[in-house]
Structures are given as structure tokens and as C-alpha cells.
Amino acid sequence: MAIAGSYLEMPVHLDDLDQEHLEFFSWCGKHQLRLQKCSNCSLMRFPPTTACPFCAHPDATWEPVSGRGVVYSYGEVHHAIQGAFKPHLPYMLLLVELDEQRNRPNEYDGLRVQGNLATADGLLAPPELVAEVGIGTQVKVIFQDMGDGIAMPLWVVDQDVEQPAQPWRYPDE
Amino acid sequence: MEQELDATSHHHLRGKYAIVGVGETEYSRGSGTTTRGLGTRAVRAAVQDAGLSMSDIDGMLSYSFNDSTPSPVIAGDLGIRLNFHMDVYGGGSSIEALVGIAMGVIEAGMCKTVVIYRAMNGFSQVRIGGTGRGPGSPMSGGALLTRGIGLSSAGQMFCQSFMRHMYDYGTTPEQVAHVKVIHAEHAANNPKAYYQKELTVDDVLSSRMIVKPLHLLDCCVETDNGVAIIVTSAERARDCRHTPAVIQSVVCRCCKPRADMHYQSGPISTVAGHFAKDILWPNAGVGPEDIQVTGSYDAFTFTTMMQLEDYGFCQKGEGGDYVSSGKMRLGGERPNNTSGGHLCEGYTHGVNMVIENVRQLRHDVDDSCPIGPDGKRQHTYDYSRGGCRQVKDVELSANLGWGTPGMGSAMVMARGT
């Protein structure tokens, strides 16, 4: 069944034909980060696709991952295009490389997820937290419910692991 | 540079097709007309520039993000009967790609002469990052992973690749700011340019941050304009008005692995030019060292830098040195975007840099130099403000078109006879 929710006051609609995104965000709704794992070559992939980018096999299962990773790169938005994000400036566009499947199937490949930096209660990070995070920061996933059994994955600084002394930041600070 | 390649090593179209006409409307904010009006005016100007009549045009190509007017309408307005046309989806990297398509359809005998246009009210109607839909339109499917995290504009899409380049290679904001400074110098010699003001590195770095690492002045201008070019055989080109720009090689929308999600397959500080160069240079029979003027897509300062690097104009990782060395300044070793490009002249999804290089190869760039009795400008090669922007004795140019970090097109052109 199609799903209708909302996030940051923006309406969300997931069509029931779009099984891949429906399943991804429904697992998020259960506060689990699950990715497709190919039934043929066993490689995982992201974002959701309709076939395996590594062997073209159509079948996959949804497997849990640790939800932990490292900031591989980032951008920091100071001028919002979408009205919904204007109250949250500056916000961070993280590219998180998950702990699983690093440098596979090829060197420099990985499971990389784009997402926002957040506080533990799932709100977009305030400026002082944004200023602390850079390439190398260890992060973990949390979820913000969007209604109707789906949720948005967001990223928080991982307090359970050792952090780099100084993550790499754009050199203007 | 000559090397054999699988499936892409057909050199037989090298030198067989040419760009014979270019046309453009004013680069403005407030065109006062529709994209239909802009497209019609640009196509008409290109046909006149070539010395052709409307009945000589029998093919048409265009591209858009559904923010233009389709070619049958433009052709109809101008009384052009088409044997071939196609309107494709896309923005940056499309123009070089459509030149390649035009060569193919002419070679296949489907038509004889193709006009390619782009018409956009990029300031007055559909702006960069705009969804073109109402604010209430729900986020759906994959858009939840982009719009849902505040990722909708080109700057927001590319910023992670730019940032990683700084991390991987120590590229500095000061180095990259030189791209804007140099293109602004060039635009100061371009009466058509939307921005003709010269700038300093400090001006760029002190402009407000849009999406780190991009300051306002690292981002291109948004303008309204129509632009068009005409592709025909080198043989027919001999009957046209100007010295033709003869196409030596073209690469059409070449991609990194997993183009739609290129950041899964790294390194993300490498862009599609890394793959495109292995088609571009062997097919052209020349290498980057032979090129005298470049047109590297400058949607952002960083896109120019990363492309010049990945197409081999310098070693990988040395793009910051290249763009800040003065090599790409008028009077330097290999000027880039002599019109001021997207950063200063106007934003046309790549076409104006092709138009500029066609004029460079004609040795007839439309700067402020005096016009002689033959109707051509008497170039002074004095590149100080308000002066010349013609590159002396230029014979070979390269255009590097950027779609995304994962997709690019390119073209080498030579001065014809």
C-alpha cells in the first residue's frame, strides 16, 4: 500500500509500485538500517536499486548493517534552496562510508550514504555541532519518524568509539 | 598520444564535420520573452552567421530540463522543414554530445545540416536547484534521499567531490578562486558578458558561503539566453561564410561507473574526464599539450579545475597549481574560457564556451578591437581591460563539458581552411 507521511513539514509519498524505496524506508521505520544484498554475488549496495550493479542479478534480500561509519566527505549548506531547510542553516550534507564492504568490490568503492548531521533526538545539528564534524569523524545512524511506518535516517557523532583528534575541515576556520 | 582502443577507435570522422554558424541572444536577467522567442532568435542568428538560408537547415537538436521549447515549434516558427529532430533531457555536457549525435545522423544520411540550440530563462523562469514544481509536491522514492536531506541544487550535489579533492590533494580555496579571477579578467574584455567587473582572490573568498566549499563567487551566474550552433559536413562548410571550426574528436556523455550514484565508486575526487580523455585524445590524434585554448565548464570554479586535471592538462592532484599559475589567463600558455564563461558571461549549459572557441578558431572573437575593411576585427593582442581577447594564431581548441562529477562530454576542434 502507498505510504503518505511528512518530514520537516514536507509531504512524503511512497508509491506501492516503488518496492525498493518502500522497503528501505519501512526498515528505517523499524529503526533498522538495512541494505539490499545480492542473492547471487552477495555484495551489498546503496542506494536501493532494481538490480545488482556488480552482477546485474535482479534478486536481493534486505540485510542489516551496523549503521556505523566514517565521514568520507561533506558539504555545509549556508544558503538553502528549499524553504524547509532555511530554519536549520547551516546544515551538513555528509557522505558517510559504512564500516561494511570498504574497498569492495574495487579499491575506492564502498557503501556510501548521503545524509544530514543530527542531534541524538533526531533534529538537524546546531551550528556548534556542525563546526566539530569533518572528514574522519566516526558517526552512527539514528532515525526520525516520518509517519505511516517510515523514517528518515540521520547521522550523529558516535560516542561509543574513539574519535580522531582533529577531523579534517575546510581550511577557513 | 596515438593508441588503439576497443570499439571507440574509429578515426574516420576526424576532420569530416564542422561548426559553421553560431548565434546568441543577449545574456540578461529579464529576457522579456519566452524560451520559444529566445530559441527562434538564436537559431536565426546562427543561420545568418553561417551565410545559409532556413531552407538549408534540415536537422534540429535541443536539450533541456523541461524548461525550453521543443524543436518542432522553433522550426515551425522559422519555416524550417525538418528531416530529423530530437529533443533530449539534460543540461551540462549536452552540447558536445549533441554535436556528436549531429555528426552521426548526417553521416547516416538522415539529414544534411543540423542546428543545435539551447533556450533558457535561467533567471526569470526556472532557476538552478528549482524543482519546477509547486512547493506542495510530495517527496517520493529516490527524491527522499536527496530533497529529503536538503540536496537539490548542483552545488549541493557536487560539494562532496570538491571537498574531497581538497582533502586528497591539499587544493586550497585561494588556488581555486583564481578560476573566477581569471574568467572575470576575460569577461572584462567581453562586451556581451553579464558580469564585466574584475575581481581579486579576496573578493571571492570574502563573498558569502553558499555551500561549503563554494562561496557565492565560486558559483556561475544565472541568466536568460538563447544560443545555437550549426553542424554540417566539412565539404559543405567550404561554401559557408566563415572559416569553419573542424571537429577532430568528440566524446558524448562519458560516465564514471554508476553514473547516477558516482560517489559509491571512488575516488570521488576524480571526475568523468578521467575516462573521457582516453577517447578524446586518441580520436583527435593530438594530446592536451597541443591544445592552445580550452573551454572548461565553469558551473563552479572547481568544475573547471577538476576537468583540466582529469583531461591531462596537468598531473592528477595538481589542478590547484594549474588554475592559479596564470597558464589559463589570456596571454598565458593556454587560456581558458576567454569569454568569461558561465562564471561571468552567462549560463547556457555549455554552449557559450563552444561558441567562443568557434570564434577563436576563426580568429574573429567579438571583443572591442576595431573592425577592418574586410569586416573582421583587427586584433591587438593587448589583453588589458576592455581590450582584445583573441588568442594569437590559435589552431586547436578543446571544450570540456561537465554534467556531474560522474558524467562529461568533450570536443576538440581545429581551424579549418
Structure description:
The complex is a heterodimer of chains A (173) and B (417). The mean pLDDT of chain A is 96. In chain A, the strands form 3 sheets. In chain A, strands 8-7-6-9-10 form a 5-stranded antiparallel beta sheet. Chain A has a 3-stranded antiparallel beta sheet with strand order 4-3-5, with helices on one face. Chain A is globular. Chain A is built from 2 helices and 10 strands, in the order E-E-H-E-E-E-E-E-E-H-E-E. Chain B folds into 2 domains: 127 residues, Thiolase/Chalcone synthase (Peroxisomal Thiolase, Chain A, domain 1, 3-Layer(aba) Sandwich), CATH 3.40.47; 171 residues, Peroxisomal Thiolase, Chain A, domain 1 (3-Layer(aba) Sandwich), CATH 3.40.47.10. In chain B, strand 11 and strand 12 form a beta hairpin. By secondary structure, chain B is an alpha/beta fold. In chain B, the strands form 2 sheets. In chain B, strands 3-2-4-8-1-9-12-11-10 form a 9-stranded mixed beta sheet. In chain B, strands 6-7 form a two-stranded antiparallel sheet. The chains are: A mainly beta (173), B alpha/beta (417). Chains A and B meet through strand 2, strand 6, strand 7 and strand 8 of A and strand 5, helix 4 and strand 6 of B.
